[in-house]
Amino acid sequence: MIKLRFALSILFCLLPALPSVAIELDEATRTVRADAKGNQTTLSPEQVKRGKRLFNASCGQCHVGGLTKTNPNVGLDLEALSLATPSRDNVEALVNYMKDPTTYDGLESIAEIHPSIKSADIFPRMRSLSEEDLEAIAGHILIQPKISSEKWGGGKIYY
């Protein structure tokens, strides 16, 4: 029993040092809509990794699994994003939203209550995000339905 505990303690000490293996996504999975005109862009594997990291650090607290904790009726799934006004189902639109968010109908600014570049004085996590960072986060949001399927933005039944 003591030998087993010793072996397990060594294993757990070594785990952080072991390299993490990420699933390499194919080009089709990494290709998303770039703008409302239908142009497409393919994210690099580095953009995908950075987008996930930045999303988890900056957005993940309120948008776990593509949900919106403050309004579960509006998720980050492609259908919800495409039905927003203006449509937010492309990189350019999501970047614009992260800079200056509006209500789902697009009529009012919600920058004072939703983290954004415009309200970086209130939401410090947004202060250091560059245009490339915002694009990586948008890419992460847009590839998740391809990876997680209906689980992304799918509600409490999944998370």
TrEMBL record:
Gene Ontology biological process: photosynthesis, light reaction; respiratory electron transport chain
Q: What cofactors does the UniProt entry give for this protein? A: heme c
Compartments annotated for it: namely: Membrane; Plastid, Chloroplast thylakoid membrane
Claim: Electron transport is one of the keywords in the record: yes
**For this UniProt entry, which residues form the secretion signal?**
1-22
Keywords per UniProt: Chloroplast, Electron transport, Heme, Iron, Membrane, Metal-binding, Photosynthesis, Photosystem II, Plastid, Signal, Thylakoid, Transport
Check the record and name the SUPFAM superfamilies matching this protein. Answer: Cytochrome c (SSF46626)
Q: Which GO terms describe its molecular function?
A: electron transfer activity; heme binding; iron ion binding
Q: Does the keyword Ribosomal protein apply?
A: no
Assembly, in brief, is: PSII is composed of 1 copy each of membrane proteins PsbA, PsbB, PsbC, PsbD, PsbE, PsbF, PsbH, PsbI, PsbJ, PsbK, PsbL, PsbM, PsbT, PsbY, PsbZ, Psb30/Ycf12, at least 3 peripheral proteins of the oxygen-evolving complex and a large number of cofactors. It forms dimeric complexes.
Q: Which family does it belong to?
A: Belongs to the cytochrome c family. PsbV subfamily.
The record describes the protein's role as: One of the extrinsic, lumenal subunits of photosystem II (PSII). PSII is a light-driven water plastoquinone oxidoreductase, using light energy to abstract electrons from H(2)O, generating a proton gradient subsequently used for ATP formation. The extrinsic proteins stabilize the structure of photosystem II oxygen-evolving complex (OEC), the ion environment of oxygen evolution and protect the OEC against heat-induced inactivation. Low-potential cytochrome c that plays a role in the OEC of PSII.
Protein's name according to its UniProt entry: Photosystem II extrinsic protein V
Species assigned in the record: Vischeria stellata
Gene designation: psbV
